[in-house]
């Protein structure tokens, strides 16, 4: 008996909270009705700026990204030596290999140096000899890893990965159109994914990232992550019959933002754990983090505005 | 709470996955490779068996094995070695340590990729366009060459990429020889010439047998100090076919004797890939004779005598290998060569496991804070871990090597999995009219749509880049598919039962 009473009490409380929430929502709702066109314009402007930036970047660099050696061809030598002074090594290696890039590897628990790696577009033999002279010992499989890719192969890989991203995007768009079967909502989903990728690309360039093969794979992952929230929003808005447009958007927003924030938290903590150890995984996580950030903007400002406009026009409001 | 049918399916899937991963409690050491020309190889010991004891001493790990072997005092005499595996007993009489490589028995059936386990990987491209059959020929000859050389833990397969380029992918697990590059890419065209006439070539047509591992007709003969350190000479006997022997007779018959009268006026020159590697004086008594036995000589050098000796042995083995296997049908270019140290692998794995656990726990806390429902958060935690187990189980079952891209794929999948569970939670929470079943239907529609968009966006990766990034696509596809079919319906059911 007591329990049943308790439940009723709880229900009452819930109801109170609900009416309060509704009031707040109402004022938000009015604000949203007034300003949703502006929330649409901001990300679109950002998209145009990003596209412009990428065009200039392409003009200056001959490509839309900075590529690391996995995409240009070259050598990465990883040496497990905790005592080498990295600044001295960098200074000396630049004399023979001006394009060389030296970076430390550290343990995430102690933060101590575990070793370092050197990247250069040159072939493996020269770098190996230089390092052996510098370090004063032979590089073997016990103390080092050496990865070499020929430039023709790497450039081939790059082209294929570009094709893969392009095909993936087209496939995704086709599936979205098949699912929703109406042009404007489907187009909004695709536009939002496109904007995520373009803005992330521009940001990666601005922070000076040298994109690796893994980085391009991360852009593929971004397509999937990006579309998730858009599909959620579109389905809630078009398929559900309950509540007003704004209520449905707010409801979807609550779910979607929880999704994106948990993803950001999960990826963020993973990045923290691997950042000193694996360049490959770090880059994947950084790109996804940036992309998820922009996805909030593109889903809940661009896509939501387009859908709101579309639904209200359809309902003859 | 009653457990519904979908949850049962999930539980069964988890159990099957654990069975596929099968943590092993076997003690002993796993035989990674056996030199088929050695005495223990002749006894029938095969790679994959688990050694339990050596000469009655129990071996629990590879250190114990090394100790057991080093405690046998060979001092140049033949000793009896009894190796007991789970399959049987192998007794061999030998004057040297068994030519096998061993490793600890893996604790699970999960296999890690080269970038975590260490090893070497080469992507080799033949010069000019070749078709599928030609690529298979090339692979067969190369595989034979690795076997003859004594490297058995080698995986060779053909791969092609989106642009239709064909490659041979060579993967060597664990420690790889220093001169792997040569071994892979050297075409190995062996020719023995007098003047510009070929007496014999490497391969079956001219060579009937090559002496190896027999001290009476093959070995390093002498070492001596040289200007750069030390040098060692080796020699081994080659048996020619009758046809080649007759050719030898014809060609030497036309030669005259040199000034000393002991040798013929021209030498027998040995070429490997059109480069002269050695020249041999031909004894006068061989003139015009159809000899089937020829002694091939060469040398190795090094800064110390041991290094020179080792180099001479390796050179001899290489020369013997190409004489037996013959020339590769194509000139090859190594377009990618990675030799990965096994040292960082365990650090990687530890960091990734910590990252995974931290991420899942953090997400569960966020979900708990957001929804204030202990049971739902627990269900989410359970589902995420079960997805991890199912992906690992399937990977172990299809013997997929988990490399870094694969692991990135697993992390991505669990991330999207959590996202979709949040969709389910929110749909269930929505206060409005629809029945619990209807809500779940809508949630599953969203999930299904997301599934198909993810699936099609991953497919192109399967073929790009000679399949080297397949891992990411494979683990992600396994993950999202099992998620859609098994764990999402189960989670939806758990939440629905919880709401009802």
How would you concisely characterize the structure shown here?
Chain A is an alpha+beta fold.
Count of discrete structural domains of chain B = 4
Low-confidence stretches of chain A: none
- What is the name of the CATH class of the largest domain in chain B? Mainly Alpha
General form of chain B: elongated
- The H/E string of chain A reads HEHEHEEHEHHEHHH
The overall pLDDT of chain B, averaged over residues, is 82
Structure summary, number of beta strands of chain B: 20
Can you identify the CATH class of the largest domain in chain A?
Mainly Alpha
Structural class by SSE content of chain A: alpha+beta
Gyration radius from CA atoms of chain B, angstroms: 31 Å
Count of spatially separate domains of chain A = 2
The quaternary structure here is: heterodimer
The termini of chain B sit apart by 10 Å
The biggest sheet of chain A amounts to:
4 strands, antiparallel
Percent of residues of chain A in helical segments? over 70%
Count interface residues per chain for the largest interface. Answer: A-B, 79 and 81 residues
Strand order of the largest sheet of chain A: 3-4-2-5
Based on secondary structure, the structural category of chain B is alpha+beta
Textual characterization of the structure:
- The complex is a heterodimer of chains A (317) and B (500).
- By secondary structure, chain A is of the alpha+beta class.
- Chain A has two domains: 11-67 and 153-314, Multidrug efflux transporter AcrB transmembrane fold (Up-down Bundle), CATH 1.20.1640.10; 74-149, Alpha-Beta Plaits (2-Layer Sandwich).
- Chain A is built from nine helices and six strands, in the order αβαβαββαβααβααα.
- Chain A has helices spanning 2-61, 69-72, 86-96, 124-135, 151-180, 183-206, 213-238, 245-274, 279-314, and strands at 66-67, 74-79, 101-106, 113-120, 144-149, 210-211.
- In chain A, the strands form two sheets. In chain A, strands 3-4-2-5 form a four-stranded antiparallel β-sheet.
- In chain A, strand 3 and strand 4 form a beta hairpin.
- In chain A, helix 5 (151-180) packs antiparallel against helix 6.
- Chain A is elongated, with a radius of gyration of 25 Å.
- Chain B has 500 residues and is of the alpha+beta class.
- Chain B has four domains: 5-22 and 344-499, Multidrug efflux transporter AcrB transmembrane fold (Up-down Bundle), CATH 1.20.1640.10; 29-104, PDZ domain (Pdz3 Domain, Roll); 119-186 and 335-340, Alpha-Beta Plaits (2-Layer Sandwich); 190-327, no CATH class.
- Chain B is 44% helix and 25% strand.
- In chain B, helix 1 runs antiparallel to helix 13 (470-499) and helix 10 packs antiparallel against helix 13.
- The radius of gyration of chain B is 31 Å and the shape is elongated.
- The termini of chain B are close together.
- The relative contact order of chain B is 0.12.
- At the A-B interface, strand 5, helix 5, helix 7, helix 8 and helix 9 of A face strand 8, strand 19, helix 9, helix 11 and helix 12 of B.
- Strand 5 (144-149) of chain A pairs antiparallel with strand 19 (332-340) of chain B, so a sheet runs across the interface.
């Amino acid at each position: 008996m007591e329990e049943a009473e308790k439940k009723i009490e709880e229900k009452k409380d819930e109801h109170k909270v609900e009416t309060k929430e509704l009031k707040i929502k109402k004022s938000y709702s009015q604000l949203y009705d007034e300003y949703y066109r502006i929330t649409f314009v901001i990300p679109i402007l950002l998209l145009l700026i990003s596209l412009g930036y990428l065009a200039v970047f392409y003009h200056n660099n001959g490509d839309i990204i900075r590529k690391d050696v996995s995409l240009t061809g070259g050598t990465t030598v990883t040496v497990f030596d905790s005592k080498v002074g990295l600044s001295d090594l960098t200074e000396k290696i630049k004399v023979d290999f001006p394009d060389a890039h030296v970076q430390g590897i550290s343990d995430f628990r102690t933060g101590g140096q575990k070793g370092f790696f050197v990247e250069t577009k040159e072939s493996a033999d020269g770098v190996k000899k230089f390092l052996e002279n510098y370090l004063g010992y032979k590089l073997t499989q016990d103390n080092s890893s050496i990865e070499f890719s020929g430039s023709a192969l790497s450039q081939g890989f790059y082209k294929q990965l570009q094709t893969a991203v392009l095909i993936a995007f087209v496939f995704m768009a086709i599936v979205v159109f098949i699912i929703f079967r109406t042009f404007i909502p489907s187009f909004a989903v695709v536009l939002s994914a496109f904007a995520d990728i373009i803005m992330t690309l521009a940001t990666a360039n601005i922070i000076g990232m040298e994109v690796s093969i893994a980085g391009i794979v991360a852009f593929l992952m971004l397509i999937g992550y990006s579309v998730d929230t858009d599909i959620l929003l579109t389905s809630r808005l078009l398929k559900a019959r309950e509540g007003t447009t704004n209520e449905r958007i707010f409801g979807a927003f609550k779910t979607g933002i929880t999704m994106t924030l948990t993803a950001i938290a999960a990826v963020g903590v993973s990045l923290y754990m691997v950042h000193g150890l694996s360049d490959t995984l770090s880059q994947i996580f950084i790109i996804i983090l940036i992309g998820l950030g922009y996805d909030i903007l593109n889903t809940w400002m661009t896509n939501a505005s387009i859908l709101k406009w579309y639904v209200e026009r359809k309902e003859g409001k | 709470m009653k457990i519904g049918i979908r949850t049962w399916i999930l539980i069964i899937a988890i159990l099957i996955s654990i069975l596929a991963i099968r943590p092993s409690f076997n003690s002993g050491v796993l035989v990674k490779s056996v030199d088929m020309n050695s005495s223990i190889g002749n006894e029938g010991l095969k790679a994959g068996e688990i050694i339990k004891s050596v000469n009655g001493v129990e071996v629990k790990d590879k250190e114990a094995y090394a100790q057991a072997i080093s405690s046998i005092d060979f001092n140049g005499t033949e000793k009896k070695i009894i190796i007991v595996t789970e399959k049987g007993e192998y007794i061999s009489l030998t004057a040297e340590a068994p030519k096998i490589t061993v490793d600890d028995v893996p604790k699970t059936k999960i296999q890690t990729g080269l970038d975590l386990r260490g090893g070497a990987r080469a992507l080799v491209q033949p010069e000019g366009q070749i078709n599928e059959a030609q690529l298979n020929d090339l692979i067969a000859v190369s595989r034979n060459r690795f076997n003859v050389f004594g490297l058995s833990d080698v995986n060779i397969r053909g791969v092609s990429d989106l642009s239709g380029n064909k490659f041979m992918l060579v993967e060597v697990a664990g420690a790889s020889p220093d001169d792997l590059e040569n071994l892979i890419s050297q075409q190995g065209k062996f020719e023995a010439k007098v003047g510009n006439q070929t007496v014999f070539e490497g391969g079956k047509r001219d060579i009937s047998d090559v002496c190896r591992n027999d001290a009476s007709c093959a070995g390093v003969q002498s070492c001596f100090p040289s200007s750069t350190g030390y040098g060692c000479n080796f020699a081994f006997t080659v048996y020619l076919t009758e046809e080649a022997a007759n050719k030898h007779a014809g060609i030497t018959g036309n030669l005259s004797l040199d000034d000393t009268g002991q040798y013929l006026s021209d030498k027998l020159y040995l070429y490997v890939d059109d480069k002269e590697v050695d020249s041999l004086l031909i004894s006068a008594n061989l003139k015009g004779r159809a000899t089937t036995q020829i002694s091939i000589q060469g040398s190795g050098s090094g800064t110390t005598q041991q290094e020179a000796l080792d180099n001479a042995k390796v050179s001899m083995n290489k020369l013997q290998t190409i004489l037996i296997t013959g020339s590769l049908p194509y000139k090859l270019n190594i377009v990618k060569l990675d030799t990965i140290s096994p040292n960082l692998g365990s650090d990687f794995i530890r960091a990734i496991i910590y990252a995974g656990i931290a991420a899942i726990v953090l997400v569960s806390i966020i979900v708990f804070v957001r929804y204030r429902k202990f049971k739902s958060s627990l269900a989410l935690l359970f589902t995420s871990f079960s997805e991890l187990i199912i992906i690992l189980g399937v990977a172990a079952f299809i013997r997929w090597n988990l490399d870094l891209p694969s692991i990135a794929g697993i992390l991505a999948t669990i991330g999207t999995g959590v996202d979709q569970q949040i969709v389910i939670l929110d749909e269930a929470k929505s206060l409005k009219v629809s029945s619990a079943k209807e809500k779940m239907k809508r949630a599953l529609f969203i999930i299904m749509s997301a599934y198909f968009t993810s699936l099609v966006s991953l497919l192109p990766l399967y073929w790009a880049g000679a399949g080297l990034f397949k891992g990411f696509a494979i683990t992600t596809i396994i993950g999202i598919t099992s998620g859609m079919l098994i764990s999402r319906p189960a989670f939806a059911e758990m939440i629905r039962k919880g709401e009802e």
